[in-house]
Write a structure and sequence with these properties.
GO terms for molecular function: transmembrane transporter activity. This protein is α+β, with helices and mostly antiparallel strands and 423 residues long. 55% of the residues lie in helices and 19% in strands.
Length: 423
């Protein structure tokens, strides 16, 4: 008796091949439904890895979007100076190191600078207008040029003038969220609000920023002259918390920042071995920080996703080997009625890919739910896209093919008689 021949799927007609493929897919779907417990284990294992992968991709996309938002708000031509060295000194150490004399000297002597705005803030002050109250997270004190120095256009009204600052005028700029809470759709210009017991007249309405940082919405703030803030709330009149500086040459920001650092060190009489008692932030510093955060996130979640998906792949392979041993009678019967070896291989591969893709869908749902939680807590910015869907399904399908091929071939190599005998 001549040995049995293996019929290649390429040797059959296209219609015959299509029928064999459809039949393999149908048997695979039936097996997935029949072996529910095995399917649940594989789907759950793959879902954990895909959930981590989903968080990686969406958080990277979100970080890119957030970086662009920060850059647009911060501006490539600006520097932000904080009192105290926040990079190396412990929290709570002295941070009141910036003074009015620094502002005057910077305005006079800092090369390339055309706008220097000092500022400080107080937290959680109740604003009242008529019978409406709103708890303002931050009241900012600043000088003239606040809107321009922060690239924050006014929707209505005007910015502070030098006269407002010199005489400690009771005037204010409102963030859009505060204006909406206190006045609804009416214009706030010319209206009076009370900050605790301090009456101030609204002279400007800032445009909607739509950006949150540190858990606070920037649109939920009120800005008043710095002199008004220090006088009316009994704050230190010599020092303030921060400086915002705009330069004419955005292409030369590294040199601008170094000039700023050298001048401040000179003004603060710091020696060659002394640490800075201030911190300078520029757009480049922010990009570096976001890049480090993103890199650490990718490494951590990447390892987690890789381990989870590899574990899921081994779970799939082991369960499929067990399944092949349990289904020898089915395999023998399929071969006895004419099923080809390649068809059995294809059936088991279909099963593996179906299970891993179902795991991918579950993993994306878990990843999206976790992503929304992280977004609501302000930990990460999550942005979902078709790329996430495509990458997750592709990764899951590859896991199914890679880890399912050996069990599938093992099933296909069984001799029909031995399979029917359960050997």
């Amino acid at each position: 008796m001549p040995p049995p021949t293996f019929t290649s799927p390429m040797a059959a007609s296209p219609m015959s091949r299509l029928l064999h493929v459809r039949r393999a897919a149908r048997f695979a779907a039936q097996a997935v439904r029949a072996y529910r417990l095995r399917s649940l284990f594989v789907i759950s294992a793959i879902a954990l890895g895909i959930a981590a992968l989903t968080i990686i991709v969406t958080s990277i996309d979100g970080a890119e979007r957030r970086t662009k938002e920060i850059m647009s708000m911060f501006g490539p031509d600006a520097a932000f100076v904080l009192g105290g060295d926040i990079k190396s000194r412990a929290v709570g150490q002295r941070n009141q190191t910036l003074s009015w004399s620094d502002v005057l000297r910077l305005r006079q002597s800092l090369p390339g600078a055309y706008l220097v705005v000092p500022m400080r803030g107080i937290s959680n002050i109740t604003a009242r207008a008529g019978n409406k109250n709103f708890e303002v997270p931050t009241i900012v004190g600043a000088t003239e040029g606040y809107a321009e120095v922060w690239n924050w256009p006014l929707a209505e009204g005007r910015d502070f003038t030098r006269e407002d600052v010199m005489r400690g005028a009771k005037v204010a700029l409102l963030g859009s969220a505060v204006a909406e809470e206190l006045f609804g759709n009416e214009t706030p210009l010319g209206r009076t609000i009370f900050l605790q017991n301090l009456p101030v007249r609204v002279v400007g309405l800032l445009t909607h920023r739509g950006f949150s940082g540190g858990g606070n919405n920037l649109d939920e703030r009120v800005i008043i002259p710095l002199t008004t803030l220090t006088q009316r709330f009994n704050l230190d009149r010599k020092y303030f918390r921060a400086l915002r500086i705009k330069f004419r040459d955005a292409q030369n920001m590294p040199q601008n920042a170094e000039n700023l650092r050298s001048l401040l060190r000179h003004l603060h009489k710091l020696g060659p071995g002394d640490d800075d008692d201030f911190t300078i932030l520029t757009a480049d510093e922010i990009i570096k920080f976001v890049g480090m955060l993103k890199g650490g996130l990718v490494i951590f979640l990447g390892v987690t996703a890789a381990v989870a998906m590899i574990v899921g792949g081994f779970v799939l392979a082991n369960l499929f080997y067990i399944s092949v041993n349990e289904r020898t009678a089915e395999i023998g019967l399929r071969k006895a009625v004419g099923a080809k070896s390649w068809e059995l291989t294809l059936q088991f591969l279909f099963e593996a890919v179906i299970l891993t893709c179902l795991g991918a869908l579950l993993g994306m749902i878990l990843g999206m739910a976790l992503g929304q939680t992280l977004s609501s807590l302000g930990i990460l910015t999550i942005e979902f896209s078709f790329k996430v869907f495509a990458l997750s399904l592709l990764s899951a399908a590859l896991i199914g093919l890679i880890f399912g091929i050996r069990p599938a071939r093992s099933a296909a190599r069984m001799a029909p008689v031995d399979a029917l005998r359960g050997k």
